[in-house]
Design the sequence.
């Protein structure tokens, strides 16, 4: 049996720098709360063809 886990969180930010800062701050917060880096995934999309 697989647990449901946490809901997916979607964010839209103005710049790549804002995006990177938001992601890194949230990963740090999760780790500070006891999460393992193995439990964290970041999905992103590029427009490369």
Sequence:
């Amino acid at each position: 049996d697989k647990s449901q886990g946490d809901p997916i969180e979607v964010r839209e930010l103005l710049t790549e720098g804002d995006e990177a800062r938001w992601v890194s701050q949230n990963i740090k917060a999760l780790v500070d709360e006891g999460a393992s880096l193995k439990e964290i995934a970041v999905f992103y999309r590029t427009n490369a063809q």
Remarks:
- The two ends are 38 Å apart (CA to CA).
- Residues 14-49 form one domain.
